[in-house]
Amino acid sequence: MNPRLQYGLLRVDKNRVRMAKDYYGYRPDIATDCYDTRTDRCGLLRHVIKPVYGAQHPPIQAMPKGEEKPRGNKRDAFHDFENNTSDAWDDGEDDLLYMANIQMSLKDVRSTAKAVIDNHSRSVNAHNNRLAPKGPQGQYTAIPSATSTHGAGPGVGIRLNSGWQPPKTTPIRFQKEQVPDREAAKLEKFRSVLAGPNTDLDELKKLSWSGIPRAVRPTAWKILSGYLPASMDRRDPTLQRKRNEYFGFIEQYYDTRHQELHQDTFRQILKDIPRMTSLAHLFQQKVVQEIFERILYIWAIRHPASGYVQGINDLVTPFFVVFLSEYIDNDVESENCDLSSLPEETLKIIEADSYWCTSKLLDGIQDNYTFAQPGIQMKVNALKELVKRIDVPLHRHLEEHGVEYLQFSFRWMNNLLMREIPLRCTIRLWDTYQSETNGFADFHLYMCAAFLVRFSKDIQREVDFQGILMYLQNLPTHHWRNEDIGELLAEAFKLKYMFADAPNHLSKKS
Q1: pLDDT per residue over 12-21, tens digit each?
Q2: Residue ranges matching CATH 1.10.8 in the chain
Q3: 3-38 burial, b for 16+ CB within 10 Å, e for fewer?
Q4: pTM of the predicted protein model
Q5: Coiled-coil ranges per the record (predicted)?
Q6: Spatial contact of 317 and 161, defined as CB atoms under 8 Å apart
Q7: Going by CATH, does the domain composed of 181-364 fall within 2.60.40?
Q8: One CATH from 3.40.1390.10, 3.40.190.10, 3.40.50.2300, 1.10.472.80 for 374-506
Q9: Backbone angles phi, psi at 484, to 5 degrees
Q10: Tell me: the pLDDT tens digits for 70-110?
């Protein structure tokens, strides 16, 4: 057999594929369309990143290779890395034609493919075993950093855990657990504010900034997001009207998902939902997948300026989990409970409320998802200017090694850090975002800056482009709790206090 066929015609460096796929936030073992060998010669891997466009908007055509402008004499570390890695296009056209004409039996094809997959699995497992010692039950543990207490050393992919297994199935618990004494006083304050005939929004935001107790979080989020009115008398009629309106949209629009005009949008939604890693076990349940399919498709149809864009699917999850907690006491992040056993009416309520609150959130950041995603581009540039002023050594280190802020922070802006921190931390973070004016847009910038600087020393220990980017895409946050988020929020608030009222400090100087 021709040796080129032993590797499926492609010899692509695994780290390059992992960086490109990790950039989009998908697990490397299940992402299948991040590297398209049928289109561009170097595809996503030429620039590491590439903006994601809605199904209604094709990506901007890449500049032909011959027209690329050199960036001065400065060495491009990623291009050097790319040039040292061969792929199928390095072979001559005659060789490819020859390979295309080789007659192979189906048995040979299957056996070759199985051998390649088995060999790849063995090499990945061996690599992970070398990097991380095993802890209890075969789970990989982080290698401690010499300079930080974050729980892992630079370049160690905490989330690249090939031994992951879904949690064991647990029955749904409807009985609420008792509130710890330390939260009882805070909970009482929330209930007092929410029980009034007209909720004082300023007081509610003040209380919510430092975190909302689980028992009142669903109601507080609905009010803070603008879904529920402050008036107690108007809440029940509003809920009934909005829920009926949502299911009216389902009846009106959902049957169009297979029409030629919308089938690309719906096909992308179907691809993205099973890839959602924040609750991988939950999104394998058919009832949950169908809920998210309807929410995302209806939102896309009603917002043609952006349509559906990869990343929006993640933003539904916190609302879904919080509103689910109103009916069950299970921790769905660590427990695998069968939601199909819930009453259908309960699931409908959770679905409708999740849709409306997600819509309210996206209304404030929709320029992140319109054509060319200008909102994200501006936020990334602002992050660069901010870090340049608050951590000069870190900024210089990234610049010297050719690391562009867009290459790692695009996902931070597109997914609101959901791919970087555990879901429990995202929910705590959103307590504060919803308490801030334009929290998901403006305050998120300062949170990203504080998040990056948190790992400054470890990033500076990486001495090449690949090490820096791999570390930034696999930050050791899997063990984080609310206390860690609280520390970052305090740092973000200080940055906002220093820079929000002085925007000229972030403008480029000629």
Answers
A1: 444 544 554 4
A2: 181-364
A3: ebeeeeeeebbeebbbbbbbbbbbbbeebeebbeee
A4: 0.70
A5: none
A6: no
A7: no
A8: 1.10.472.80
A9: -65, -40
A10: 454 455 555 554 555 444 334 444 444 444 455 556 666 56
